[in-house]
Amino acid sequence: MQESTDILEVGVWRGDVTGGQLVSYQVPRQSSQTILDVVTWIQRELDPGLSYRFSCRVGMCGSCAMMVNGIPRWTCRTHVQKVVQDNRLTIEPMRNMPVIKDLVSNMDEFFAKWKLAEGQFHGRKTRYDPIEPLLPDSPRRLAASAAIECINCGICYASCDVVSWNPAYLGPAALNRAWSLVNDERDIGQQSRLNAIAADAGCHNCHSHANCATYCPNELNPTASIAGLKRLAARAAFAGKI
Amino acid sequence: MSGFRLYLLQRITAMIMAPLVILHLGVMIFAIQGGLDSAEILSRTQGSFFWGTSYGLFVLAVSIHAAIGIRVVLFEWASFRGVLLNIISWLVFVVLITMGARAVYAVVA
Q1: Distance CA A43, CA A49 (A)
Q2: Quick one: which of A24, A136, B7, B29 could link to A204 by a disulfide (CB 3.0–4.6 Å)?
Q3: ipTM of the complex in this document
Q4: Number of folded domains that form chain A
């Protein structure tokens, strides 16, 4: 590695709800260095006051999501080498969410929208009933499986332009969750879910830009899930159910 | 009308417009093969129930479709909300349907 590339110029957003700005830090470059490594190095070596979130460091928990050079990413799974431009990095809190401090965003609304989209399972059985058999290769189970691996990191929500224009919009994560439950044969809350996904903040707001599908680290396709919800809601509207 | 019903109405009007656009372009390309002037066109369209209905339906579908589309653009990009948004959407509809109806009348009546 040449000397000119040994030091990274890193702009980190510092501030709180009242405002903030990018602050420059110089961070030594290392092999196999991740963006989370860079942020951790800044906190340990330069400024202990820097706030950020992380937990598992291996792409399981989703808590370290931040904007890296303007794109939402899991910082633990993003190598500097992959995203660095002219030896510079910009690290900011997640888009479309209020900031709490520095790189920590407030995800309250993001999670509230999961509830608004009827993202909770409505079962008809108790723990004393026998387990309901579900065929793993039935069409509905396959549709649910395609949407089910979401870990609530908020990357899709931060990448969604519609959320940025219409803050009430439920967003790709909540609607993707609704789609997985629409296809759950055990769920008996489908009418209330239909009402939720066809409400003013619902699925029809999606313009199919597919930013969510592009940036989802788990390679889910919320755009396709939302398209499924649109078809479902359209059929329900013609049938007079909504 | 709810946002979802507006969305549905915009899709339905798109489905009406698509075949009418193909019909319009197809007939146009076919009709001008041997050379054609406006007098000849008007002689075929004037008094025609078929062309009056086709273009009348097209103009209605365009007016509804465009008004809903511009409504969404104003909502998302210009932050228009509430009564003002509804008034502007209706204005777009009225202007388009008026201009379109005048054009259809001029060609068919």
Answers
A1: 7
A2: B7
A3: 0.89
A4: 2
